[in-house]
Amino acid sequence: MEAPLLPLREVRRHELAPVDPHVWPATLPPVRQILSDGLELGQVTVLTGDNGAGKSTLVEAIAGAYGLNAEGGGTGAMHSTRVTESPLAEHLQLVRGAGASKKGFFLRAETMHSLFTYYEEIGVGGMMHERSHGESFLALVAERSRIRGLWILDESESALSLSGCLALLGLLRDLIENGSQILLSTHSPVLAALPGADLYEVGEWGLRAAAYDDLDLVRTWRSFLGAPQRFLRHLD
């Protein structure tokens, strides 16, 4: 099978739009690393890391630099409520694949309500608000799966149960098989198991590649499930 043309090959700093290294978000180690060294992307890239590490800041900025709405949706989505994302997108340069699709879709868990409202207002996507959060999330991915390009997902597990995460993995697998590229940030060991993914841990060290079994995320969950009382006793 011929390798797909990747919509996004690399993320690096924009030489014509320098950023102050002493001002957030450039002070975040993973952002600093990308501005210094860049980041090459394969067909599937998964970012894991603790709250505040910079995962969402990175994927929001990449989505914005790609031309996607910062609150979610495709390249033509025009909705906006309250701007909360950083200005990092203005300082990134994306190296796109020659001849690759320029289409894409951004799923940002914390702004799904506004995205569903936007779709209802313009009369597409059905009545998403009439479904549960998880059902509407999966339905949206399924309905937009015709979009072949760059799919960016930010902490999508917040809407999903375990079975929902497994269902999402199936939808993402289908997107990949149809030639789409995936960039995913997650706290879920289920979503981090996306087959074929390049895994990166985001933290005070910046970004570091890791095997699935070596992810802090995976090791911590396994430890908790094996002996939850070891963790719960610290809550007293």
Major beta sheet, specifics? 7 strands, mixed
Q: What fraction of residues sit in β-strands? A: 15-25%
Number of helices: 7
Q: Provide the low-confidence segments as ranges.
A: 77-82
CATH class: Alpha Beta
What form results from the Cα inertia axes?
A: globular
- Rounded to the nearest angstrom, the radius of gyration is 18 Å
Q: How would you state the average pLDDT, rounded?
A: 86
Number of domains: 1
CATH topology grouping: Rossmann fold
CATH 2nd-level architecture = 3-Layer(aba) Sandwich
User: Fraction of residues in helices?
Assistant: 25-40%
Architecture blueprint of SSEs:
Layout: E1 8-13, H1 29-37, E2 39-40, E3 44-49, H2 55-66, E4 73-74, E5 92-96, E6 104-108, H3 112-122, H4 133-143, E7 150-154, H5 162-177, E8 181-186, E9 198-203, E10 206-209, H6 216-226, H7 229-232
Helix pairs in contact: 4-5
Characterization of the model:
- Helices cover 31% and strands 20% of the residues.
- It is of the alpha/beta class.
- It has a single domain (8-211), classed as Rossmann fold (3-Layer(aba) Sandwich).
- The strands form two sheets. The chain has a seven-stranded mixed β-sheet with strand order 4-6-7-8-3-9-10, sandwiched between helices. Strands 2-1-5 form a three-stranded antiparallel β-sheet.
- β9 and β10 (206-209) form a beta hairpin.
- α4 runs parallel beside α5 (162-177).
- The longest helix is centred in the C-terminal third of the chain and has 16 residues, at 162-177.
- The N and C termini lie far apart (56 Å).
